[in-house]
Amino acid sequence: MTYGSGPATVLAASGWPGALGHPFFQHALLAGTAIAAAAGLIGYFLVLRAQVFTGDALSHVAFTGALAALALGYDPRLGLFAATIAVALLLGGLGRRGKVDDVAIGGIFSWVLGLGVFFLTLYTTSRSAANGGAGVNVLFGSIFGMSSGQARLAALVAVGICAAVVVIARPLLLASVDEKVAAARGVPVRLLGFGFLLLVGACAAEATQAVGSLLLLGLLAAPAGAAQRLTDRPYRALALSAGLAVGEMWAGLGLSYAVPQVPPSFGILAAATAVYAATFVPVPKRRPAPVAA
């Protein structure tokens, strides 16, 4: 599917009215907005809990799961969700108190990559003739290729993830900052850790549809990292992370529509990287007004 129709459209405050006239862009905007909000909320807690490596691991799991489903003749989304959620819970079981550690991730990482190579070989030698671009779509996303039904389903799942994060945000924040204090106050730290990892797995599968497994980590980590640099208030940072992710999604989709040669996943991650980099630019401090004599 091409990203625009006719000559490249110039967005003017600007090409959005023209872009919104295309069904494929409407579907991408619907799904992308919800997916970005979920990734921003989940990503904030991943950064806060020092579990960003989990997102990196699940990006490889997403690729392996989708290829396994394709090789076996199933919908790749089934493989995405089944693999990412199952491995996220497995990692939690191998860690402490439902919290993934680097040793657990390292123990599974090579195994997952090996399975990915196996299913890639199986798929390319047996079924790729029927859908040769499916593997590329898993790697780099296919948000402009979503049908109306796929976009609505993706949006509903992402909204469910957002709602779940909001419900557990308060106890999860306490458990993320100080596990011992949270446990002393009766917070089920281990169960909460497993619940969060389940949401991470579901969000990883969702985000893969937008930016692909190869760039998944950027959508989870960059908005959250920028939000943490901009404010030290947890709830404000949580909302800011979601807002930045949505804004970057819109900017990336708009850029890709305006310049059809730019893949949407690249546009989204380019916007996310630019925003994160901008937080390192020193801001001159205001000098206090002189006190009148």
TrEMBL record:
Q: Where does this polypeptide localize?
A: Cell membrane; Membrane
Q: Which GO BP terms sit in this record?
A: response to zinc ion; transmembrane transport
UniProt keyword annotations, A-Z: Membrane, Transmembrane, Transmembrane helix, Transport
Transmembrane stretches, start-end: 24-46, 53-72, 78-96, 103-123, 129-146, 153-173, 193-226, 238-259, 265-283
A Pfam family annotated for this UniProt entry: ABC-3
Highest taxon above the source species? Bacteria
What membrane topology was assigned to this protein in its record? Multi-pass membrane protein
Keyword flag Transferase:
no
Q: Which residues form the signal peptide?
A: none
Q: Indicate yes or no for the key word Transmembrane.
A: yes
Please give an example of a GO cellular component term from this record: ATP-binding cassette (ABC) transporter complex
Q: Which family does it belong to?
A: Belongs to the ABC-3 integral membrane protein family.
Record's protein name? Metal ABC transporter permease
Question: What organism, scientifically named, is this protein from?
Answer: Streptomyces liangshanensis
